Amino acid sequence: MAPPNRKQKSRFEGGGLVLFTAVREAMEAQRVLKKTGYLVKLVAPPAELRRGCDLAVEINLVEKPGIERLLDHRNVAYLSVIPIKVGTSELLEVVKVTDFGDWLMVKAGNMKLTFDKESGVVVNTSGGGCPDIPYLHAELISKLLTEAPRPRDIGFTLCALMLDHAFEEGCILWQGARQP
Amino acid sequence: MMLIAGTVPVKGLPLTMAKVRAEGESLVIDSHHIPCTQGTGATISAALAATDYLKLEPPQVLVVGDIGKGKGSREIYEYLIQRVGELSPAVLVLHYCLPDMALMRRLCQSIKGCSQRPLMVADAGSMYAAKAAGLATEFDIFTPDAAELAFLADQGATHPAYINRHLFDTDIARLPRLIVDAYRHRNAAKLLLVKGATDYIVRDGDILATIAEPDVPELEAIGGTGDSVTGLVSAFSYIGLELHEAAIIAAKTNRMAGKFASVTPAAGVRQIIGQFPSVFREYLCHWSGVCHVEGGNYHD
To answer: What residues of B are in contact with residue A11 (Cβ under 8 Å)?
Structure first.
């Protein structure tokens, strides 16, 4: 089934900003991101968020990891990616661990990763709601923590970034438990 | 019609709308095979298990391949924006999609054009978009877990990755406080089914029921167990149960199925959904009063 023709142009409402030190970098980033298919817009950052030049790129904040990876790959320099809403909390870094006997579950934000304590094999991922999460679930299950792809490397969204925090903590816990 | 819309992790799957059926361990949608795993696939499978048992028409589903790049998600939004008026589903379930506030805003506007307003259910990325866009009150049912409830309670957060640390640290005893805050900020649907060690059924801010038995803590680790609850509550709402009754039965069914399957944290959601018919046979009449099913008509 072909998607319907887009008659009405979407008003973009992304919730995130990429900040730069130079206007030229902002324009280059916009070009690279647009060409890859991201919906983006050149905007002036709010005064309280200005950290260098007066031009920023508005993005869908949920797509932060994929956008950062693309800009890094293309060597486009940027300062940071931040939420537009002033007063928004920092990205959540804290993790919680639940011991299920033979398995450990590591929780970061809305994402959970569970691995076998003995073998280090990922047995489950759960939580989240972005489209890359079911994909990452399929890519991680039954793989060793040391051999599985990092969610941050193959995912695109903030849910993937949270899963990566859980993955990273899982690696630390598993390798720590194996040291004499 | 019950319409379930969401992305699936199948590269290259075009936008497809059709009735769904089960075939072995897959779902078949217009000749496309979709895995019954975490995400929209689990929600569809759970809803289909309920409609099959009740001998009702299967859900209509709108799916597209998307592994996180967002193109498929936008196709779903655009399709619904243009067609939801003519489709006029009785129940509309919005599931795994890249959160997009502007498109969600346009979709909610289009829904106002339906001859009869659908019952609106959102979970996963669609729930994130509805909350971030300030449209939560347009929805009838949200099915958050504890971390997502913290996101609904945090007025400033546009995604659960940005919730305030002290809200993430909230222990289970303080979940009622998060429920109050979510409603105070108008970030909750009319009914919340909060999934966790204890499930909370909340209507307009009032906690109507809590469900903690059977206690199967392993369910939290299993990808898709929240999605299956969403499918169940949608299906039970579709047959006309009161929303809070539908939510209570959905929560109980999922827990009991986990117990029936003797799950470990390494189990797959398919093992749990596979137990739904057994749970229905043993408990549905007792829990819901839906006891005899004859050709789609059910009786007390």
So the answer is: 102
What domain count does chain A have? Answer: 2
Tell me which residue range forms the domain holding A150: 95-178
Residue A74 has pLDDT above 90, yes or no: yes
Residue A114: phi and psi, rounded to 5, are -120, 135
Parallel, antiparallel or unpaired: strands A15-19 and B292-294: unpaired
Are residues A67 and A110 both part of a single domain?
no
The confidence band for B300, taking pLDDT boundaries of 50, 70 and 90, is low
Categorize the per-residue pLDDT at A49 as very low, low, confident or very high, splitting at 50, 70 and 90.
low
Question: Domain ends where: A46, A62, A83?
Answer: A83
State the residue range of the domain holding B134. Answer: 2-299
For residue A52, name the pLDDT band (cuts at 50, 70, 90). low
Test B226 with A130 for CB contact under 8 angstroms: no
ipTM exceeds 0.90 = yes
Q: Are residues A77 and A101 in the same domain?
A: no
Q: Are A110 and B151 in contact (CB under 8 A)?
A: yes
A79 and A23 in a common domain = yes
Structure tokens at B159: 């995604």
Q: pLDDT: is A97 or A23 the higher one? A: A97
Mean pLDDT of A24-51: 84
B35:A138 CB<8 A: yes
CATH number of domain containing B181:
3.40.1190.20
| C-beta atoms of B128 and A62 within 8 A | yes
Buried b / exposed e across A140-168, counting CB within 10 Å, b at 16+?
Answer: bbeeebeebeebbebbbbbbbbbbbbbbb
Crossing angle for the helix pair A64-73 and A158-178, to the nearest 10 degrees: 80
